[in-house]
Design brief:
By secondary structure, this protein is an alpha/beta fold. It has 26 helices and 27 strands.
């Protein structure tokens, strides 16, 4: 890139996906003139995908909100920050006073994971509200994996990830890291790492109902009927026991429940599951044997294995395979990152803990159990619609768009219209926030500091990086963490005029005292130069596994040290962490949690169920992981990406033509989409991408509305969920299709 006179270079962690690539942002005259990968970045090494360059488009997007909006009558008007908070203070407290804390729901979207202020201060708002009605995008995506990991290892984010740089055989189910660069696995430039794996003689096998971008570059691809992963995985475990291949190796003394798993998988012979999976019995055996015979191997599954009826059981069996083949917590296998901050598995007494608890409460209408403090997103609409004590009458949404991202979005939209009051923290007037009464926008990602709170806990390599603001924020525009503190002030009865700085001081002092006890004053003094998220980050870094322990370990990490290294600090490759990383009450890997054994018995009883004639699955494109990306020119340009992929066999059977329209009908609703014939699809399976449907009145996403696409989630059944995690069933849902004249 040619440097212009007066041009400066700043560095920013990309906020668009889990890969968290390091960016080099070129600025001249207060404007971004170019973005490229940061070659010196210790984690991403210069890698960049099209989303990274779109950060300029997001910053300059004319549709991005730059002032609060307040609804007057049936239209939004710009308001001052004082007017917006005055409206919230006028309308929210009477609902809390008259109907109780559960009358207010909190709804959180996945962009929160990329905003340090929202991620660190959002939970404080949840605690202040004290509502049982907390919903997030986790139950549309990853909760099965978090639940299975919590049950096995004792922590919600103690999730093993592939050690890709040292593995020689990788089995991938329901994941497409060529597009995602990892999901619950932070791995920038998966393509380059996969090429290196194969260059050293390694193999990649992909199991998926679509020949994805990852499957196309793999050594082997196997079609599988959507929702059948649990049967395939259980049969592979069965083979390990039947052929005496189950050898946990070093972990033998750290694992409980092996015999119980052997008994539970007995019904799942390769022959018994073959028809249900669509995979020959011999191939099931060869996969299990290859996994057991390869010294450095790993099984990885992601969104396709999570978003199904047996999502938690499938997620669990993936790690059962890694354990029984001796590939858990070993180089080249599935390993546990050691994050420098905020990781529960680095705090407290190592190797033992309380584990996790679920079902501490249940949803009012369906009785769905709480998991990780959340209720299933598919229960949101019914909690608003159904009268009675505890009915949801108000909502606070934070960077969430469930009208497009959750099943039966039209029902959610209708329910949101029934609320007495709704406030949204969001940078767009979108399909969900159009229902709000007040919208509080955050600043551009380029105008705020950033640290990835969650993703170093899932990274392929240990590291620490911080981004300072690239550009100054607009005068008078508060950061989102301060907006959340003002909401806390309103909820706690202190009013919209609460002293935000004093409230932050009080909350931090309370948290530090709880952890540091009599040393609290000294700890607070040590971090006194920082405010807001930076202070919380300095506290976490200094007390973390690599920290300076507030002067006791002078060479350890502090926020100042990490800030001084914009390329980041490399903390080394993943290393074995069992038993230290465990937080289970037994101090062992719990291979056979009772609830999972029971769910596997449910699956065994379900083996004979015939497969539907036609099912639908979602998909994502590297340029459109989420709905708001469709409004950014660099990502929206090019061929239209919201076509329904149909195998030629199904097209002939259903009378569908390439480029023509088809009506896709689910349990309750139908959408119309353009047909694209593709031999990448397994017969009996069609695929429509996630996050489209930008034709709803009232949203202000001008570019997205030019090619709105069809909303996959509108045809999905919001009554279907994994009973253990509450995760929505988004994959393998029966549909019918017919041509549209």
């Amino acid at each position: 890139m040619t440097h212009r006179p007066g041009e400066t270079i700043a560095y920013r962690i990309c906020p668009f996906c889990e890969a968290c690539c390091g960016l080099e942002v070129h600025v001249a005259g207060g404007h971004v003139v170019g973005i490229r990968g940061h070659d010196a970045d210790v984690f991403s090494g210069g890698y960049i995908c099209p989303k990274g360059t779109a950060l300029k488009d997001l910053h300059e997007d004319p549709d991005r909100l730059r002032a609060p909006l307040v609804k007057r009558g049936d239209r939004f008007v710009e308001a001052s920050w004082e007017e917006a908070f005055a409206e919230i203070e006028r309308r929210l407290p009477p609902i809390l006073a008259g109907h109780g804390r559960d009358a207010v729901a909190m709804v959180v979207g996945n962009p929160v994971a990329h905003k340090v202020g929202l991620l660190l201060y959002g939970p404080r708002l949840g605690r202040a509200l004290g509502t049982r009605n907390f919903f997030s995008a986790s139950t549309l995506d990853q909760m099965p994996k978090q639940l299975s990991a919590g049950l096995m290892f004792g922590g919600w984010l103690t999730i093993p990830v592939p050690d890709i740089e040292r593995t020689d055989f990788m089995l991938i189910l329901g994941a497409n890291p060529m597009v995602s660069n990892g999901s619950l696995w932070t791995v920038p430039d998966f393509r380059g790492k996969a090429k290196a794996l194969r260059a050293r003689g390694g193999r990649i096998v992909v199991v998926d109902p679509r020949r994805t971008e990852t499957a196309a570059m793999a050594d082997e691809h196997l079609f599988i009927r959507p929702g059948a992963d649990v049967f395939l995985l259980a049969a592979m475990v069965n083979v390990l026991f039947a052929e005496n291949l189950a050898r946990p190796g070093r972990l033998t003394g750290h694992v409980a429940g092996i015999d119980a798993v052997r008994d539970a998988v007995a019904p799942f012979t390769p022959e018994a599951v073959s028809v249900r999976c669509g995979i020959p019995a011999g191939k099931v055996r060869s996969l299990a044997r290859a996994l057991a015979a390869t010294e450095r191997a790993v099984v990885y599954g992601r969104i396709g294995t999570c978003t199904q009826e047996y999502g938690t059981a499938a997620s669990w069996l993936i790690d059962v395979l890694n354990v029984l083949t001796g590939h858990l917590d070993e180089p080249g296998g599935a390993m546990f990152p050691k994050a420098p901050a905020f990781a529960a598995n680095t705090l407290g007494k190592p190797g033992i803990g309380k584990g996790i608890a679920t079902g501490r409460r249940a949803s009012r209408v369906s009785g769905a159990p709480e998991v990780f403090g959340e209720l299933p997103m598919v229960c949101l609409a019914e909690e608003i619609e159904t009268p009675g004590e505890g009915q949801v009458r108000a909502a606070i949404t934070i960077a969430a768009n469930p009208v497009l991202s959750a099943p039966n979005g039209p029902r959610i939209a209708a329910a949101l219209d029934r609320l007495d009051f709704m406030v949204s923290l969001d940078i767009y007037l979108n399909e969900t926030t159009r229902h709000a009464d007040v919208i509080l926008p955050g600043v551009s990602p380029l105008e705020e500091m950033h640290y990835d709170v969650a993703f170093p806990q899932l990274a392929f390599r240990n590291y620490a990086r911080v981004s300072d603001p690239v550009l100054p924020p607009p005068a008078g525009h508060p950061p989102e963490w301060q907006s959340i503190l003002r909401l806390i002030g309103i909820v706690d009865g202190k009013g919209a005029g609460v002293d935000v700085a004093a409230l932050d001081e009080a909350l931090v002092a309370e948290e530090v005292k709880r952890v540091a006890g009599p040393q609290a004053d000294a700890v607070l003094k040590a971090v006194s130069r920082w405010r807001g998220p930076e202070r919380l980050l300095d506290l976490a870094l200094r007390s973390g596994p690599y920290g300076d322990l507030f002067g006791l370990r002078p060479d350890g990490l502090t926020l100042a040290k990490v800030k001084a290294r914009p390329e980041g600090i490399d903390l080394g490759p993943l290393a074995p962490r069992i038993p230290e990383a465990l937080r289970t009450p037994s101090g062992k890997v719990e291979l056979a949690p009772p609830v999972l054994l029971a769910d596997l018995a449910r699956a065994a009883a379900d083996l004979a169920r015939p497969a539907p004639e036609l099912v639908i699955v979602g998909r994502r494109d590297v340029r459109s992981n989420n709905s708001w990306m469709h409004n950014l020119p660099v990502l929206a340009k090019g061929p239209f990406r919201c076509a329904v992929l149909v195998s030629p066999d199904d097209a002939r059977r259903l009378g569908l033509r390439d480029g023509a329209k088809a009506r896709i009908e689910g349990a309750r609703r139908a959408v119309v989409a353009e047909v694209e014939l593709s031999d990448a699809m397994m017969p009996g399976v069609v695929s429509l991408p996630h996050g489209w449907g930008h034709d709803l009145e009232g949203a202000r996403l001008a570019l997205a509305a030019e090619r709105p696409g069809a909303n996959l989630n509108a045809v999905l059944d919001d009554r279907l969920r994994d009973p253990l995690s509450g995760n929505a069933v988004l994959s393998g849902v029966p549909v019918t299709m017919r041509p549209v004249a």
